[in-house]
Amino acid sequence: MADIDRYVSQLAQLAVRQGANVQPGQIVSLAGEPGKEALWRAIGEAAYAAGARFVDLSVFDVHLKRARALHADRDTLPYVPPWIGERVLALGDQRAARISLSGPVAPHLLDDVDPELLSLDRLPRVPESMRVVNDQTTNWTIVPCPTPAWATLVHPRLEPPAALELLWEQIAHVCRLDEPDPVAAWDARLTELVRVSCALTDLRLDSVRFHGPGTDLTIGLLPSSRWIAARFATVDGIVHQPNVPTEEVFTTPDPERVDGEVRSTKPLFTSGTAVTGLRVRFERGRAVQVDADQGAEVVRGLVATDDGAARLGEVALVDREGRIGPLETVFFDTLLDENAASHIALGGGYHLGVGDPADVERINESAIHTDFMIGGDEVSVDGVRTGGETVALLRGGRWQI
After folding, report:
1. What secondary structure letter does DSSP report for 354?
2. pLDDT tens-digit readout, 75-109
3. Most buried of 41, 111, 137, 214 (most Cβ within 10 A)?
4. pTM of the model
């Protein structure tokens, strides 16, 4: 337990200092689930030590989500109390910091619940979250929080204590807690990712093509699409790292120019359900067919959320130099799995991903933003310039630029 206690303390410091970069006098919003108390308490202590004015804890219990799906009137499932979204907007108005803890606490709790019902209740996500991200009014981050149930999901062959210890060791490694100075280590990695993103932007690509087993997908870009890494700044200039860990460079695509078929290369865990073998066919930007070995109904429900839910809001590229992919571990957590392989996201896009204000109006708008992984060593990625010239981007997971 001594190592786990040390990891909790180190991760809390990293979340406050490097992730959200909490400033003296800020309100800090902290979001978690029952079972993550040790980490959120450590983060709260670190935030107050950094000068936080107030730490506001928000807890979401997946057991209540299950009870709602099983017993509430179906017509009420999409209802979201207005104060939940208003709270998020208020955090933006107050220029607050936001820290969320990822990782399932009861990964099998919803296995016997109708996936269609789960897709109707999209909490804890609310569309206002994307608004404050695009408005750049909060410095925010998401960090993983290992729990016993999550550990046995990832490492089912180990006894629970050993599984939890191994998961924490892996989280410590991918979060660079094993470095003498984790903050400096992240600064170095982000500098490299920023270099790659600038090189991609300078290519002025018209589209990106993924090609591999079960995948032949072309994603058009907007005229001013620019590639960025997860080194963000608020409107007030607070630099922060939205995801800890992060290994991606990403941009905002043209939601009307996506064509072809794509197969997920890692499971997607959404709405409390594991989706495996996901296959999606796009025509003129819209997902027109969704199939999966397991959990297709959940994704079909997501793409039916609104007009933009069936279109793309993000395309991200991930190389093999990160720490997550080489572990060859499926974490069943989007924060980690999306940074193991290139991915795309159904739903709303990021305003930061375009350089021309005129293109902002063309960005996809949706209440959802759901990433799923489509990259890997067997998937080649090419860029296509406006004149038709093809530029190799990734081969075997290694940058060609």
Report:
1. B
2. 999 999 999 999 999 999 999 999 999 999 999 89
3. 137
4. 0.90
